[in-house]
Amino acid sequence: MSGHLLSLASGVLPEFSPEQTAAAAIAAGWPAVGIWVEPSTWTAATAAEVRARTRDAGTVVLDVEVVWLKPGADDPDHLRIIDAGATIDARNVLVVSSDPDPQSSADKLRRLCEHAADRAMRVCLEFAAFTEIASLAAALDVISRTNHPAAGLLIDPLHFARTGATPAMLQGVDPRLLPYAQFCDAAALGPLPQDVPAIIEEALDLRLDIATGGLPLRALIDALPSAIPLSIELRSRALRDGFADPAERAAALLAATRSGMAVLQR
Q1: Do the bridges between strand 151-154 and strand 122-126 make them parallel or antiparallel, or are there none, so unpaired?
Q2: Are 86 and 119 within 8 A, CB to CB?
Q3: Hey, which CATH number is domain 6-264, 3.40.50.1220, 3.40.50.620, 3.90.1150.10, 3.20.20.150?
Q4: Strand partners, 61
Q5: Among 16, 217, 239, 259, which one has the highest count of C-beta atoms within 10 angstroms of its own C-beta?
Q6: Quick one: which of 189, 126, 123 has its CA closest to 159?
Q7: Please, where are the H alpha helices in 118-245?
Q8: Average pLDDT score over residue span 12-17
Q9: If you average pLDDT over every residue of the chain, what do you get?
Q10: Beta sheet of 151-154, edge-to-edge order
Q11: Angstrom distance (rounded) from CA 176 to CA 147
Q12: Which of 206, 189, 187, 209 is nearest to 262 (CA)?
């Protein structure tokens, strides 16, 4: 379980700009960072500053987010998010889907993959109870339909558990589909499956530090590829309230993450 590249997920600092997120991650000592790309506000100056900061510090940009697939025609902003990621050397782009048609989702995903592959990026599909792709099986089906080597699967421990998945279900999943994963902890029991507002609240506000909750993290990490990069997706109201300064929040989370990973390795 050692040797994982740890990345500060962009969702840890939702109220801060990409430049501030990169600066906070670097100041706190994170080896990697995720960047939120909002096409309407992303500029060449934003890209230049994030790229300069991360390259100078040797900080990996693990992912950019989020491409949210919807019914209907392709959204040009989705390609802009990939292009923005390419300008800052991002390795992956995170995708979720609100398109109820699996084949339509797959077709859109394949076009994203074709665009991303030319930029040396992977397109990673995340599933969650509040999206149309709401299970591990559904996500694997869409990826299979996509039939493109740039397509990947993104596991988030919270969504994984809340959609009824177990670590044993990852047996037989091609490790090449898993270029990185998210990581966090949460209460062992979550909201009722039909309580979508509560599910979303938990995902945005109630995540816990690693090894402080009840998710089967040890079994999950053992089921994932060895040394898989981990984006620490710890969206937490308590963390935001406790650390208003972005660098202090990033530092506190890194310390808690290292402590939690050490517990898992015992």
Answers
A1: parallel
A2: yes
A3: 3.20.20.150
A4: 33
A5: 217
A6: 126
A7: 136-146, 157-162, 196-205, 217-223, 237-242
A8: 98
A9: 97
A10: 151-154, 122-126, 92-97, 60-69, 32-36, 6-8, 230-232, 181-183
A11: 13
A12: 209
Residue 30 makes CB contacts below 8 A (sequence gap 6+) with 6, 7, 8, 59, 250, 254
Q: For the chain, how many residues are written?
A: 266
4, 264 contact by CB (below 8 A):
no
Element (H, E) at 111: helix 102-117
User: Which amino acid appears at position 157 of this protein?
Assistant: P
Helices (H), 147-245: 157-162, 196-205, 217-223, 237-242
pLDDT band at 194 (very low <50, low <70, confident <90, very high): confident
pLDDT of residue 2: 54
Of 117, 120, 139, 119, give the one whose Cα is nearest residue 128.
139
**What's the mean pLDDT in 179-205?**
95
Q: Report CA 235 to chain centroid distance, whole Å.
A: 11
What band does 193 get if pLDDT is binned at 50, 70 and 90?
A: confident
- Sheet strands (E) in the chain: 6-8, 32-36, 60-69, 92-97, 122-126, 151-154, 181-183, 230-232
SS3 label, residue 58: coil
The amino acid that residue 23 corresponds to is: A
CA triple 130-81-12, angle to 5 deg: 55
Provide, rounded to the nearest whole percent, the portion of the chain with pLDDT above 70.
99
Taking a C-beta distance cutoff of 8 angstroms, is the pair 55, 26 a contact?
no
The pair of structure tokens assigned to 106 is: 């797959």
Question: Could you state, in order of their start, the residue ranges of all structural domains in the chain?
Answer: 6-264
**Higher-scoring residue by pLDDT: 185, 3:** 185
